[in-house]
Design brief:
This protein is mainly α and about 850 residues long. It is about 75% helix and about 0% strand. The protein has 37 helices and 2 strands. A two-stranded antiparallel ribbon has the order 1-2. A hairpin with a 2-residue loop joins β1 (about 250) and β2 (about 255). α2 packs antiparallel against α3 (about 60-70). The relative contact order is 0.04.
Length: about 850
């Protein structure tokens, strides 16, 4: 605020008012003598009060100004000074009363409007403050302080162009004023007009090279420009000069800080932050500690020191400083916000939430706190509340990119891809070359089945950055589904991605990339095989499945501890699936080999598949009872086929009675696994019925009844009924698997929004592909049990075909049901 010295005593004429100098003690003695001689002189009390304020004796100054007003209540200048003093003493409400009384006495007093505006500005009543500055300038168009203070207000309101206009008008009144040049330089720097900003700071220093505050402001500019050595020089000069004046005023104008101690601290902690950037943390910490020695009760200083400690990963010490900051100022918004972030990082989410709530009560329009609180709510499963805070944050600050990133992650997890796309476009408009953003945007296009757009986006980015393995992998996956794209092109792109991973030392990603692409190729050819019964299509289907299994196994070996078991299990399951898919070739394309040879190959294939499922069970990090049950069931089934081959070849077969108890004993294990699971129990019951059918067939043969069409028809109908009983549960399993994949679909997304703490750097995130692969593995782990259950049920369907060996078209019917096995298995 601006003092009004218009009624200073004539005895002060010999006092030289140099900023920061100590006024003569003789002046104090003279005032006391004058007041003894004339105790009712209101002007003398007012002048003495102003003198005591300059001397730093604020309480005594207040008493003198109050005495002056008691003697003459209509002294406007005294009311202004008394209002200013009350504000400095921490009584803003009482100060406001004095300014209002002054305005009742003289509504057009520019000094009153200016000082009242300053009080309103400091108490965050910005619109009211602007009104007062306008009234001050209306009353006095040459009020320099009003222009400067108004410029400062507009700066705070982020109306930088308007602030510039006020400083220009101030310079027209006083072209050599160093303070105005310095403050104008700050505005120009914020407007990104760096050269003009530096020119203004230099002009300020030309006018007053001994002003510490100007050196300090120039140091801030140089620090922001990354010219740290030059900035350090300016900070050191400011600390060397550091005048003793308790108020940094120049011709009634106020600098950025209100008093001497705060100014000193500002230099120390800004210098400290700069030293930290220069990788000189010990020196930086010394500056923070020095600042706290000057003012140990400063809430802001404890907060800034806490920030320094937080950024240097000294979280417990940072927590101590945040707590102290809140002890000295329970309404310190920045301290609440940063403490909430710290608590969040420490996993103390309930405590963090409390501080976010307090911060939002203090400032409901703070977009950063809405974003950070939304991020916490998102991670604790309160999606609707999180979305509400993200929307509020974006309504306050539509350009808050971190909020866009966090919100887009929420939308992805809810499969709201169209809404997510809008936010990706905003993010990409700001950072079009960002690797992860481009990857994730291409991925949602892929998820929305807009494959051409996804492939185009990947291809365009690869022109800019051809060595980004993540997006090259996605490109290979995307073009795989496009028409008229050869396997060769897909595998070529996939191998480029795998090679890039290998060159960077990521052998795990090298193999998992091949595994996923070959798996996708296998599924592509499986779909084609359902439409077109072509030998080449079926052959590629099982071969790609087999390669995929090999790559999953190798990826598991490269992954080390953690996901090794899951990947090995998945790899062996793929190998088993490949053997089942291969059986189709034997049944449909015998290649002129005998039916007996094909049947033997089928049995061997089933037995090989069973062995792979056994390995899958052994590789599982947990006791995988489903895999074990699958292995047991397939072993029993393979043995049944072997027995059936003997019947087909009309060999004497007398061992069935011995095998049946063994089969039933093994199936009892599967029965225990599926207790309480209707689909599993139905499957086991079906196998038991199949055994009964085989016993009946043996009986028919022994009784020479195998030519009895009625008996054969009854057996066939019984097995058809078993097959029909399996069909319903089979479809439910397929639906359940698809449902599970939908539930975990969001795990494929790789964009993980990160909070934006005040003055802290975001922690590094894993690459997009890494998160995609890890989460894909987790997803596959969850559906392994469904795949295995599916295998068990489907294999049973084959049993319904075996009895037809007694009919005239035995081989054709057997081939048809083997095809059914492959269809449902996949």
């Amino acid at each position: 605020m601006k003092p009004d010295p218009e009624n200073l005593s004539t005895q002060l004429n010999n006092i030289i008012l140099i900023a920061g100098s100590i006024l003569s003690e003789k002046v104090d003695e003279q005032y006391k003598l004058d007041l003894l001689a004339d105790p009712k002189n209101a002007a003398l009390h007012a002048s003495y009060g102003y003198f005591l304020e300059v001397m730093g004796q604020l309480e005594e100054a207040g008493e003198e100004l109050k005495s002056s007003l008691d003697l003459d209540p209509r002294r406007v200048a005294t009311r202004i000074n008394y209002g200013r003093l009350l504000y400095r003493l921490g009584h803003p409400e009482e100060a406001e009363k004095e300014f209002k009384i002054a305005l009742e006495i003289d509504p057009k007093n520019a000094a009153t409007h200016t000082n009242y505006g300053f009080l309103l500005q400091k108490t965050n009543r910005l619109e009211e403050a602007e009104r007062e500055y306008k009234l001050a300038l209306l009353a006095n168009s040459t009020d320099l302080t009003a222009y400067v203070n108004y410029g400062t207000l507009l700066d705070k309101m982020n109306r930088l162009e308007d602030a510039e206009e006020q400083y220009k008008k101030a310079l027209e009144i006083d072209p050599q004023n160093p303070v105005i040049h310095s403050n104008y330089g700050v505005i120009l720097y914020k407007l990104d007009r760096v050269n003009e900003a530096e020119k203004q700071h230099k002009l300020a220093l030309m006018s007053n090279p001994k002003c510490a505050a100007i050196h300090y402001n120039y140091g801030i500019l140089l620090d922001g420009l990354g010219r740290l050595e030059e900035a350090e020089k300016e900070f050191k000069i400011a600390l060397e000069i550091d005048p003793e004046n308790s108020n940094y005023n120049y011709r009634g104008l106020h600098f950025k800080v209100d008093n001497h101690s705060k100014f000193q601290n500002a230099i120390h902690y800004d210098y400290g932050f700069m030293l930290d950037k220069m990788n000189r943390p010990k020196e930086a910490e010394n500056e923070f500690k020095t600042a706290l020695e000057i003012d140990p009760r400063s809430s802001d200083l404890h907060y800034y020191y806490g920030q320094f400690l937080y950024e240097n990963d000294r979280k417990e010490e940072a927590e101590r400083e945040y707590k102290l900051a809140l002890v000295f100022d329970s309404k310190n918004l920045a301290a609440h916000s940063s403490y909430a972030i710290l608590l969040d990082k420490m996993g103390m989410l309930e405590e963090a939430e409390e501080h976010y709530k307090i911060a939002l009560e203090i400032d409901p329009q703070n977009s950063i706190n809405h974003n950070n609180y939304g991020y916490l709510l998102d991670r604790t499963g309160r999606i609707d509340q999180a979305e509400e805070h993200y929307k509020i944050a974006l309504n306050i600050d539509p350009q808050n990119l971190t909020t866009h990133a966090n919100y887009v992650n929420l939308l992805n997890t809810r499969n709201r891809f169209e809404e997510a796309e809008k936010h990706y476009k905003i993010l990409l408009a700001n950072d079009s070359k960002n690797r992860e953003l481009n990857y994730n945007y291409a991925h949602i296009l892929y998820d929305m089945d807009r494959l051409k757009e996804a492939a185009k986006h990947c291809k365009n980015f690869l022109k800019y950055d051809p060595n980004y393995a993540d997006i090259r992998f996605l490109y290979s996956l995307t073009i795989l589904h496009l028409p008229r794209i050869s396997d060769r092109k897909v595998k070529k792109e996939m191998e480029k991605a795998a090679r890039l991973f290998a060159e960077s030392g990521n052998n795990f990603y090298e193999h998992i990339t091949r595994a996923i692409i070959y798996d996708a190729l296998a599924n592509k050819y499986y779909q084609l095989a359902q439409k077109y019964n072509i030998e080449e299509t079926n052959s590629k289907c099982w071969k790609y499945t087999d390669i995929s299994g090999d790559e999953y196994i190798e990826a598991g070996k490269q992954s080390g501890e953690g996901s090794e078991g899951e990947l090995l299990t998945l790899g062996y399951i793929k190998k088993g699936k490949a053997r089942v898919r291969k059986i189709v070739l034997y049944t449909i394309y015998p290649n002129n080999s005998s039916d007996s040879e094909n049947f033997k190959k089928i049995i061997n294939g089933i037995q090989e598949a069973a062995e792979f499922y056994k390995k899958a069970a052994e590789a599982s990090t947990e006791e995988n009872k489903i895999c074990n049950a699958c292995f047991v069931s397939m072993s029993v089934f393979a043995d049944m086929l072997d027995c059936m081959r003997a019947i087909i070849e009309k060999r004497t077969f007398t061992d069935l009675d011995n095998k049946v108890p063994i089969w039933k004993n093994k199936l009892s294990y599967s029965h225990e696994v599926y207790i309480g699971n209707n689909k599993g129990e139905l499957f086991v019951d079906s196998l038991y019925k199949a055994i009964d059918c085989m016993q009946n067939l043996k009986k028919y043969k022994e009784d020479a009844m195998f030519l009895d069409e009625k008996a054969v028809e009854e057996c066939i109908m019984e097995l058809i009924e078993v097959t029909n009983n399996i069909e319903g549960p089979l479809q439910k399993i397929l639906y359940s698997s698809a449902e599970q994949m939908d539930i975990h679909r969001e795990q494929i997304k790789t964009w993980d929004g990160t909070i934006t703490p005040c003055f802290t750097l975001p922690e590094s995130e894993p690459s997009a592909l890494k998160k995609f692969l890890i989460k894909t593995v987790n997803m596959l782990k969850l559906i392994i049990k469904y795949i295995n259950t599916l295998i068990l049920v489907i294999l049973t369907a084959v049993i319904g075909v075996i009895v037809t060996v007694y009919s005239e078209n035995i081989i054709n019917l057997f081939n048809a049901f083997i095809s059914l096995l492959s269809n449902y298995f996949n």
